[in-house]
# Entry
Amino acid sequence: MFAPMLPRIKKIMIVALASALIPAHALAVQAEVVADGLAHPWAVAFVGDGQMLVTERAGRLRLVGVDGSVSDPLVGLPDIAAQRQGGLLDLVPDSDFANNRIIYFCYSRPDPTQAGLNSTAMASARLSDDAKSLESVRDLFVQSPTYRGGFHFGCRIVEGADGTLYMGLGDRYQLMQEAQNTANEIGKVIRVNKDGSIPTDNPFANTPGASAAVWSYGHRNIQGATLDPQGRLWMTEHGPQGGDELNLIKPGVNYGWPVITYGVNYGGGQIGEGITSAPGMQQPVVHWTPSIALSGLAVLDTERYGRDWKGNLMLGSLKFGHLVRLVLKDDQVVDQEVVLPDLGQRVRDVRLSPDGFLYILTDSPNGQLLRLIP
# Structure
């Protein structure tokens, strides 16, 4: 059985920095404010010439200039069910964005036929030449079934090495038992082509009664996703009062929720049978119990921060307002370290820029876009 583990946390000195910088890790890492005044920002995407797109959960998309200026909201977004945890969420540029200006984003989509119901959807769009609007917006995938609720939308997108799109989905909270049902997309990772069609090599593409879009299942609420240099998919997900997980995502694999978990019910009490392992259910690479409320995830495929950090995973903590650096060996976490321990802001997204710098978004009414400077 997987033993609960918390690899040792290193103590970190605080260094004195200029007033424009936030105190950070003593290993000469500084958090520089790139932009602020962002209302509950959720995702940042790099779109060339030093510019970035940032989503705000309330349903706004903004362009951040190379000088840190924040644009008026772009026009052209679809109707968004912005309530509780729902809204405009993740955003990634196409791998050929420089030529086609295509982006992919996910959001909580109101059911057009039944008022009050919603689900997580992934859409594609073209960023206009003047970067003021979205063009040719269309849904590529809509989670089924829709549900009347405002929790656990999941919503992280990754373009795979083969050009397909992966999206991590939540269990919608009250529908957690459906995470084990491959007939729908509740609590699943799905995989689709860029035109919205289903790849024929998806693990359930030829399984009667199953959703052909499903790539893996048994997830609770996916909050971070990234590819490693080998093209493999890593994701983080929230557990309930514990059992936050880092997983290496593989096709057709059952990640256990809610049958197995290291978490407990809010207010106390075990979930289901209160077990942490079962035949045919994958253990997490590492879990955090109690919870740190994981958020964005990135792999440091760069030596900008030194050789010791290259290949490490960086993830955010909403609960404690810092970053966590994970050291991997043979796909296992052998060490972890708190970075920016005194940031004091909920970290929502963590992204590596094309030039190798790490960016983070802080989740607040006056959220910030920060860059880690070695």
